[in-house]
Amino acid sequence: MLPGSTSLEDLGPGGLSEITLLAPPGTVERRYTLALALKALAVGGRLIAMAPKDKGGSRLKGELEALGCEVNETSKAHHRICTVIRGKAVGDLEAAIAEGALQFVEPIGLWSQPGVFSWNRIDPGSAFLVQHLPVLAGKGADLGSGTGYLAKAVLAASPVGKEGDKRITRLILVDMDRRAIEASKRNVDDPRAEIVWADVRGHEMEDLDFVVMNPPFHDGGAEDKALGQQFIVQAHRALHNGGTLWLVANRHLPYEGVLGQQFKHVSLKAETGGFKVYEARK
User: Fold this and answer.
1) pLDDT value for 2
2) Integer Cα distance of 154 and 49 in angstroms
3) pLDDT for 152-170, tens place per residue?
4) E strand or H helix that includes residue 40
5) How far is residue 126's CA from residue 108's CA, in Å, rounded to a whole number?
6) Distance (Å, rounded) from C-alpha 116 to C-alpha 102?
7) Where are the beta strands (DSSP E) in 23-85?
8) pLDDT of residue 225
9) HSE-up (13 A, CA, CB side) for residue 5
10) All domains of the chain in start order, with CATH
11) Which residues of the chain have pLDDT under 50?
């Protein structure tokens, strides 16, 4: 969801006459979205839900029927398209909504939500970066901050001093997924944290001492190597001369070239079977 847009969660019950949506690929997230849409429809309102056949479309009709709907299904352009007229009685929408809502995930000790990247596990790339970060200082940012795991670890390693001396003075968390932002607000309660709902590629920052990031490399489910490269360019813009970027990336991603073009000094600090950690100084 883009910053500033309206979500299904924002809609009151029974207020709309028609909703058209592209159902998400994840099973729990898809059921959650369908249940929210049905809840928002007035009796007699129409829901048109579609999904690619190989990304949940083949299960769409059955899931709507399980929510108590009569479904008319068609196919077009490798998508399944389901049309539903909201009846007076539907199935247990609240159970599907609760299953897909923001929730505390006990095994990882964080708030998260189905559909957020790595929603119910610690991403191994971020964990690898945390293992190799030095204690950071000054004003920084976590670009593509997700649910706040990396930011929380960075702040914990640089606590407020006994006499108020703060090694990190400010940490800006930026992510375009509103669900991740809402989770971050619960996960990162440090007063030095500023949590921003924005697209990193268009969010202007300047004069930062450091940036940490585990940049995304998928857009709409397809691998997009240019996405992480754009994050690197944005990090360079945000840093002052002498500022440092700490980056973790999957080994196969071609980031060395853009790092070398943007930064004066680039060094590989750690690598494992699947990941590399770089320090780049502007």
Assistant:
1) 54
2) 41
3) 999 999 987 655 666 999 9
4) helix 27-40
5) 13
6) 10
7) 41-52, 71-76, 79-85
8) 78
9) 11
10) 8-100 (3.40.50.150), 121-281 (3.40.50.150)
11) none
As a whole number of Å, the CA-based R_g of the chain is 21
Strand pairing of 138-143 and 110-112? unpaired
Query: Would you state the pLDDT for residue 265?
Result: 97
pLDDT for position 98:
96
- Which pLDDT value is given to residue 216? 86
**What tokens appear for 42 in the block?**
């007035």
- Cα–chain center distance at 46: 30
Helix (H, G, I), strand (E, B) or coil at 267: strand
pTM of the model: 0.91
Is 93:40 a contact under the CB 8 Å cutoff? Answer: no
Q: What gap in Å lies between CA 107 and CA 256, rounded to an integer?
A: 35
How many angstroms separate the CA atoms of 186 and 236, rounded?
29
Report which DSSP code applies to 73. Answer: E
Is 187 in a helix, a strand, or coil? helix
